[in-house]
From TrEMBL:
Taxonomic classification: Bacteria, Pseudomonadati, Pseudomonadota, Alphaproteobacteria, Caulobacterales
Positions of transmembrane segments: none
UniProt name for this protein: ArsR/SmtB family transcription factor
SMART domains registered for this protein in UniProt: HTH_ARSR
Cross-referenced CDD domains: HTH_ARSR
Superkingdom classification of source: Bacteria
Coiled coil, from the record: none
Domain (HTH arsR-type) ranges: 1-85
Pfam families per record: HTH_5
Length: 95
């Protein structure tokens, strides 16, 4: 979870979803100001970490929309949690 939250784009995604409740990819990309492919990459990381959930829905005109929402989570930030997170770090930081 900490690694997923270490990216500024992902923090902005969590903040935007927290404010809106849930949103679909195209609208969220416009709000945050990043491309949809980059947003998909970051949403996948957040979903892998259990920080967001997704749900595919059909719009009234039949288009498939993938809605994302923030999961209910809490992080108990202790020295032990930080040590465990540090042990999982790779030598190549994410971009």
């Amino acid at each position: 979870m900490l690694a997923a939250l270490a990216n500024p784009h992902r923090l902005r995604i969590i903040a935007a979803l927290n404010q809106s409740g849930r949103n679909y990819v195209s609208q969220l990309a416009r709000e945050i100001g990043i491309s949809r492919p980059l947003l998909h990459l970051h949403l996948a990381k957040l979903e892998e970490a259990g920080l967001v959930t997704s749900q595919l829905e059909l719009s009234p005109d039949g288009k498939a929309l993938n809605f994302f929402a923030v999961s209910d989570f809490a992080i108990d930030l202790t020295p032990g949690a930080i040590a465990a997170a540090a042990a999982s770090l790779t030598s190549k930081p994410e971009s």
